[in-house]
């Protein structure tokens, strides 16, 4: 697997991956009411540090790395990740996370924070904990899960 910065040629593949992940209704707070234009201007924005994971010339994962907040909060990075559901269990999440930690360090961030990690997303939680993140807070009922109703959401943090 190779992780590299995304480019305009990758937008269609990232959008396709995005739709699959969002339509599962269990990982991201976005719903299907968001248009491609809205997502391209926020999540898939190449002005963000957007990276893709390629396996045999297929994009199998992606992540963005951006300031968690503007101004005086911009020294903390925020990242979001997507992995092709058919490629889960291959360590892609670990590799994307490790890559994002190194990228955040190179960009001069002080720490990283994930604002909404769904408590039922056990694979992601294992990856974040294994990569040195800790849960610093829990939002009771912070995510409306498609099948389970309101479930908790965690805030993860890691100093770089």
From TrEMBL:
Domain N-acetyltransferase positions: 1-160
Alphabetical list of Gene3D superfamilies matching this protein: 3.40.630.30
Pfam family, one: Acetyltransf_1
Gene Ontology MF term list: acyltransferase activity, transferring groups other than amino-acyl groups
Origin superkingdom: Bacteria
Protein's UniProt name: N-acetyltransferase domain-containing protein
Taxon lineage: Bacteria, Pseudomonadati, Bacteroidota, Flavobacteriia, Flavobacteriales
């Amino acid at each position: 697997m190779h992780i590299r910065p995304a480019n305009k040629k990758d937008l269609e593949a990232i959008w396709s991956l995005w739709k699959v992940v969002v339509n599962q209704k269990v990982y991201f707070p976005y719903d299907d009411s968001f248009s491609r234009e809205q997502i391209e201007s926020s999540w898939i924005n190449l002005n963000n540090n957007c990276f893709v994971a390629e396996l045999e010339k297929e994009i199998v994962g992606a992540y963005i790395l951006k300031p968690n907040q503007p101004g005086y909060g911009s020294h903390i990075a925020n990242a979001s990740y997507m992995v092709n559901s058919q490629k889960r269990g291959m360590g892609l999440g670990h590799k994307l996370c490790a890559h994002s930690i190194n990228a955040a360090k190179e960009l001069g961030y002080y720490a990283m924070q994930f604002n909404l990690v769904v408590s039922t997303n056990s694979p992601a939680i294992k990856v974040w904990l294994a990569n040195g993140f800790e849960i610093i807070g829990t939002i009771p009922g912070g995510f409306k899960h498609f099948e389970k109703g309101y479930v908790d959401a965690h805030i993860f943090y890691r100093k770089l």
